[in-house]
Structures are given as structure tokens and as C-alpha cells.
Amino acid sequence: MTSIAMSFDATTKRYRNGTLALRDVSWSIPVGARACLLGPNGSGKTTSIRLLEGALKPTSGMVRLLDREVNGSGYAEARMQTGVVPQMSGMYTDLTVAEYFELVRRLYGRGDVAGALEIFGLAEQRDKRLAQLSGGFQRRVVLAAALLSEPELLLLDEPTVGLDPVAAHEVHAYLATAMRDRTTLLCTHNLAEAEALCDDVIILRNGEVLLHEPLAALRQRQRPRTRLVARQPVTTLSAALNARGVTHTVEDGAAIVAIDARAEAPSLLRALLSEGIDVYECVQLTATLEDMFLEAVQR
Amino acid sequence: MRPQAIGALLWKETRQLGRNRMALLTAALLPFVILFFAPIQLLIQFKIAGAKAFDPSAVPIPGLSDIGDPLQLLVRFIYPLLFVIGGLLLPSLTTTYAIVAERERRSLELLVSLPVSVGEILTAKLISVLIVTALVGLPYLAIVITLLLVLGIADATVIPTLLVPFAAAVTCSTAISLLLALLARDFRTANNLSGAFIVPIILLTSGTLALVPGPARAYGASVMLLLVAAIALLAALRWVSFERYLE
After folding, report:
1. How far apart are CA B126 and CA A164, in angstroms?
2. A133 and chain B in contact, CB less than 8 A
3. Element counts in chain B: helices (H) and strands (E)
4. Which residues of A touch B19 (CB under 8 A)?
5. Which residues on chain A are in Cβ contact (under 8 Å) with B115?
6. Do A103 and B107 touch (CB under 8 A)?
7. Mind listing the pLDDT tens digit of every residue in chain B (247 residues)?
8. B9, B115, B243: residue with CB nearest A56
């Protein structure tokens, strides 16, 4: 059994129109990992997914899926073990939900169409044309189709983009179940979604890998920050902190100080209170993926 | 290429073609006019007009010099040309539609997310087009040929001289449409380009039919059509990628 689920080895992708989508990129994720691929628009996320699904060919370098070179010998078998949820695509006006599932079942050579319709709450929509469904149902269909064959690997390209919050919440619930015990690469703009569903982070910018780390390690590396709020105006609190040489920023009426609340806050609070600064809130801030992402892309 | 994948895609294509009223109407009407109505109408007119209407031997064209009977002109020159026109027009719209429509409704992304290769997708689309063309074209050809045999206008040797150019024209049109569908960004451009290619090919066919003497004229035209098909196919293979569609 292979231990690398997917890998990019010195991969460059330049489109025929000259656009350089990926520039000498190398990364891999092991079997069992749940990684998210983050990056601003045009960073190469969708191109990466399309290279993995074999729709595009790399200009140079090598892309591997389940240890098989994409479009090389044995790739078809690796592809049969991979479910893909494409980015919000167009939908067929002339195929029903049941027919689309039947096509997927025939292509994978396995799958329970009736079961998928039931599990994803699509039984009542089975005879509707795909294009007639609402955005939420269309995403459900695509997700159900990707899971129909019970694949080992899932490639998800912006699975909730364009959905209203209720529909996105529904899809998240399905994703959380689908990604359990399954190697997944989630390509998303939604950092909360990535944080909730993934363990590893790959950040792309301008076609290059900016960062590739486990989310936990990334969090550990973040400097601790503590939020202080006082009864006095924040300018008074800020002046008191400056007088003590405590580095801080001011955000929304609070001072964000670069200290570990558990280790350093008690002495700081004692000092501030003794100076007559009535600090009534002291909260250790956990760095969100958004903070880490912004820090990485603004570096 | 995996037969299972092509079979599944073919199933999808035939379902979709069956639901496309415009494609069905075109597929039903065009062959009726070109492969049935026009040949029968010409046959009746030539029969009525008889030998007085036209004397082909008086025309100084090398390919027609062996034809001394207006009905033979119909069978050996006009019908092959008509069937070539039918063979060129019939699959062109369907091929272009089958490929470009995937791009226009942005369903290609949905399709390439499934375990299929670009080659399998195109093969299934072309096979479905050929099946539809055969289903709607061949019955009319059979009727016309049967009429020629029954009326004693031609013998059995006429069958390949009508069927081979038709098959060559279908191959040529499919190859050109494949190339244009891969290159064109939308349905209208693909159709306009298709028209721009087909008209010169019709002229080339009529030229070949008129210049090649004897029974070889139909096969000469067929070889010419297959050459064009091979060139178009080679060019298409260079472009066989949906990269332009996915950029």
C-alpha cells in the first residue's frame, strides 16, 4: 500500500495563453491526511486539482496520485479510487439526477445509486434535470456523485462556494462525515471551513508554495496574544502599556498585547491595576487560520 | 482507452442527443431533404425529361465523357455529389454541438471530474454522432439505391459508388468538426468555421467527380475526402486537449 496520497514534484504549469499557474511546485500529502489548499485568487489551487484529476498536463515536473504518475501507467486505477468535487460548474440541462448518478456508477464500475439518493436527501429530486436544482442541491449531487463509489481519496474544489449559509452548513455536515477516515485535499477560500475540516495546510501564492505545515504546528509557532480591555479609554491603557515597554496594538477599543496570558498576564494585570487602570477583561487569543493565512500571504 | 468508460459515456451522449429537440429536428429534416427528397425529385424530373434534356457527351469534361445517358449522369455524378453533401452536412452540426455545448454550459468541469480521459470523452461523442448519422442517413440511401435497382436504372455496382463517398464525407465532416469544435470558443464560431470549410470541400468533390473518368470517379472523390479527413484529424490530435476550455 502506498503512503503518499498525492504529490507534486517540481511541477510547473503554464497555460497556452502564457499564464503561469504553478511555478516549480513541490509538495505531497500522505495517505490519511486531510489537507487544505489555500491561496488568493489565481494562486494555482484549481490548476492543482485539475492536474491531479488528469484534465490538464503539467508543463514540466511530475504529479502523482496514489503513487501513480498522472496520465501514466496505472493512473486509471488510481483515478478510480478518487472522488472529485469540482468547483461550481455548469449543470446538464438534459440529464436527471438519477441518470447522472447512473453515469457515475457505470464509470466507476461500482456504487449504490438508490443509497446515495437516500443518504443525501435527493430521493425526491431523482427525476429532476440537474440544471433545475437549487445551488444547494446541485452541490449535494456533486458531492454524492464523488462519494458514490466509496473512494479512498477526495479532491474538493471550493465545495461550498456560492452557497447561502444554510446550504453551506448542510454541505459542511456531509463533508465532515465524508472526510472521516478518508484522505482529502480541500481547496477553499473559506478559512473557517478549512480550519474545521482539515489538519494540514498548504498555502499557495502566485503559483508557489508559501507554506505547508500541520495546522497544530502552525498554531504553536504563532506568538501568543492577549486581549486587554479597561474601563478607561484605550488610549490610557495604551499609554500605561507603553510606559512599561509592552508591545501591543489597539483594535476595537482593546489592547492586543504580545504576551502569554497564563505566564505573563498576572504580573502585568497587577501592575496595571496598581496604577489605577481598571482592566476588566483579559483573554488569551487563539490564532485563527485566517490570522495565519494573512500573515503568510502578507510576508 | 477503456471500453467500459466509452460505453458509459456513449450511454450519456445518446440520452442527451435524444433530448435535444433542435439536434433531432436537424438530424431528421436535413437527411430527408438531401438524401431522399432531392434524389427522388431529380429522378422523377430526369425520367420525365428523358434523353432530350441533356446530352452529357457534348460537354467537354473528362470525367463525364463516358456518360452518354442523362440518367447515368444522375447516378454517377449528381447522386454521389448529393450524398457527399449530405454526408458533410449531417454530422457537422451534431459533432460541434456535442463538444462545444459542454463548454458553453460549463459542464465540462463536471465531466472531467469523473474518471475519464479526454480521449474517451471525444471517442464517445464521435461514436454517438456516427450512430445518429448512420441511423438517419442510411435508410434514405437504401431507399434511393433500391429504387435505382428496381427501376433498372443501375445495377449492383452502383451501391459502393454511392455508399463509399457518403461514408468518406461523414468521416471528413466529423474530423473537421472535431478540429473546429476543439479550436472554436463557442457554438456560433464553430458553425461559421464549419461552413467555411464545407463549401470548398463540396467544390473540390464536384471537381474530382468531374475530372476523374470512369467508375473510379466516386472512389477518387472518396480518397480526396479521406485525405482531408486525415489532415483534419492530425491537426485535431495536436489539439486534443480540453485545456483551452479549462483555462
Report:
1. 40
2. no
3. 11, 0
4. 94
5. 76, 79-80, 82, 107-108
6. no
7. 888 999 999 999 888 887 877 777 877 788 899 999 999 999 888 887 765 655 656 666 777 777 777 788 888 889 999 999 999 988 887 787 788 888 888 888 899 899 998 888 888 988 988 888 888 889 999 999 999 999 888 888 889 999 999 999 999 998 888 888 888 777 788 888 888 888 999 999 999 888 888 778 899 999 999 999 999 888 887 766 667 666 6
8. B243
Strands A208-214 and A279-285: unpaired
Contact A270, A177 (CB under 8 A): no
pLDDT tens digits for A41-53?
A: 888 999 999 999 9
Show the cell assigned to A34: 486531510
Residue closest to A231 by CA, chosen among A254, A265, A264, A261 = A254
Is A76 in contact with B115 (Cβ distance < 8 A)? yes
B4 at interface of A, judged by CB pairs closer than 8 A: yes
* DSSP states of chain A: --SEEEEEEEEEEE-TTS-EEEEEEEEEEETT-EEEEE-STTSSHHHHHHHHTTSS--SEEEEEETTEETTSTTHHHHHHTEEEE-SS----SS-BHHHHHHHHHHHHT---HHHHHHHTT-GGGTTSBGGGS-HHHHHHHHHHHHHTT--SEEEEESTTTT--HHHHHHHHHHHHHHHTTSEEEEE-S-HHHHHHH-SEEEEEETTEEEEEEEHHHHHHHSPPEEEEEESS-HHHHHHHHHHTT--EEEETTEEEESS-HHHHHHHHHHHHHHTT--EEEEEEEPPPHHHHHHHHHH-
Enter the C-alpha cell of residue A29: 500529502
**A79 contacts B115? CB cut-off 8 A:** yes
The gap from C-alpha B180 to its chain's centroid, in whole angstroms, comes to 15
pTM of the complete model: 0.79
Taking CB atoms and an 8 Å cutoff, what residues of chain A touch B12?
Answer: 95, 99, 103
Contact across the interface for A94 and B107, Cβ inside 8 Å: no
**Among B20, B112, B117, beta carbon nearest to A94:** B20
**Interface contact flag, A86 B109, Cβ < 8 Å:** yes
Min distance A86 CA to chain B CA atoms (Å): 6
> What is the spatial order of strands in the sheet that A68-69 belongs to?
A20-30, A4-14, A60-65, A68-69
Q: How far off is chain B from A262, nearest CA to CA, in Å?
A: 49
